[in-house]
Amino acid sequence: MRIILFTGKGGVGKTTLAAATSLKAAALGHKTLVISTDVAHSLADSFAVPLSNDPRSVGPPELFAAELDTGEELERYWGNIKRRIASILQSTGLESAIAGEMAILPGLDEILSLVRIKKYFDEGRFDVLIIDSAPTGAAMRLLGAPDLGRFYIKNILDFSRGIGNVFVPLLQAFQRRSATESTVPDQIQRLFDQVEALRRILADPVLTSVRLVLNPDRMAILETQRAFTFFSLYGLTVDALFINRVLPPAVSDPYLMSWKETQSEYRRMIAESFSPLTPFEVPLMPQEVTGIPALTLLADNLYGQKDPIQRLSEAQPLTFELKNGEYTLSLRLVGVQGSDIDLEKCGDELRIQVGRHKRAIALPQYLAGRTPTSASLDGGYLKIVFKE
Fold first, then answer.
1. 218 Cβ partners below 8 Å, 6+ apart?
2. E-assigned strands of 48-163?
3. Which residue has the higher pLDDT, 128 or 344?
4. Cα–Cα dist 163/171, whole Å
5. CATH number of the structural domain 318-387
6. What are phi and psi of 26, to 5 degrees?
7. Cα-flanking dihedrals φ and ψ of residue 259, to 5°?
8. What residues does CATH 2.60.40.790 cover in the chain?
9. Which residues lie below 8 Å from residue 121, measured CB to CB, with a gap of 6+?
């Protein structure tokens, strides 16, 4: 199964491109599920058909679509746990509304989105899962959720077991528990086990590709550069860029010529900044692209004879190399200055901070006993040298 995730700054057209890509994949015979994880869904509007939390057939027989309902997912995976924790907290004197809010872990909606994706992956019903993700800021929180899970497991879970031991007598006063029923910490552990398993799937370039959508304007380019760096730090492979709403050559209105020239400069900047990725340019259409016929036409013009579920680039964001007895870690970064980078090795982890984003990379065994002695930016890559 392939997972393809579309994300970009809000309003750049990622939903349209995700929908068009899913139609092309289905037309080529791939059983396809396109799912929106954005809180403000617009996938149904793009297809011009109603959608719900459960996949439904859309257009071609091989195409299914859904819009993730975080409220339903919270109830499905966390309802019983939430009620137990809230009951314990209320017994200490907290108001019910406050207890209910405190019973939901921070970032849980993002985590449950990942669990839902893992469910579809495990079922194997589809050949490809196309994710219409939230705008880049929320998508980065979503894809950072696997590391959030690791944090909870390592730091909070042991604490929660201790708290649970204190409040178990109170909990037993509210409801009878069977001998076979798992504890709340056990259920939390299983939830994060699912998230950790999906982390490995998302970091596998054979299985997962991230595709960034942007418009040829300064704000979108800057946000896309930050997103590219973030995904590289998390080991995800960006295999394509889509520059959407490019003014086509046929546009000759004097009012738009200045904007057209500006777009041309930004397109050149994008090609240089994100090399070796080759951008796909999507022209500004004469009318809004909604409905299956318009989306199908867009997909055919965009991909031609290409199969959209195949990897569109072989570039790797993170590599290791042995040369002259030294190991070098190369990490692809975009739009980052040397002063923005901070490194710290702690045990078998290398902690990297790029701007406001932090990442702890688990080092392979042959690097865990070595020390990073130098770091430099070279051709858009952060190169870190390890010595004995």
1. 266
2. 56-57, 63-67, 128-132
3. 128
4. 12
5. 2.60.40.790
6. -65, -40
7. -65, -35
8. 318-387
9. 1, 3, 129, 198, 201
Q: Provide φ and ψ at 101, rounded to 5°.
A: -70, -40
Q: What is the CA radius of gyration of the chain?
A: 23
Q: CB–CB of 50/44 below 8 Å?
A: yes
In tens, the pLDDT along 195-234 reads: 788 888 988 999 999 999 999 999 999 888 888 877 876 7
Structure tokens at 218: 């300064």
CA distances for 81 relative to 15, 78, 180, angstroms: 33, 5, 16
- Bridge partners (DSSP) of residue 332 are 381
- Cβ 188 vs Cβ 152: under 8 Å: yes
- The position carrying tokens 């059983």 is 31
Tell me the average pLDDT across 65-88. Answer: 83
Q: What token pair was written down for 235? A: 């080991």
Interatomic CA distance for residues 55 and 247, integer angstroms: 35
81 in helix, strand or coil? helix
Please give the single-letter amino acid code of residue 269.
M
Residues of the chain with CATH 3.40.50.300: 1-314
| Beta carbons within 8 Å of 28's beta carbon, 6+ residues apart | 307, 309
Q: How far is CA 46 from CA 8, 9, 139, 206, 292, in A?
A: 16, 17, 20, 29, 8
SS (H, E, C) 222-240: HHHHHHHHHHHHCCCCEEE
Is the domain spanning 1-314 CATH 3.40.50.300? The answer is: yes
Q: Are strands 381-387 and 371-378 parallel, antiparallel or unpaired?
A: antiparallel
Residue 291: how many other CB atoms lie within 10 Å: 15
Tokens of 187: 């259920």
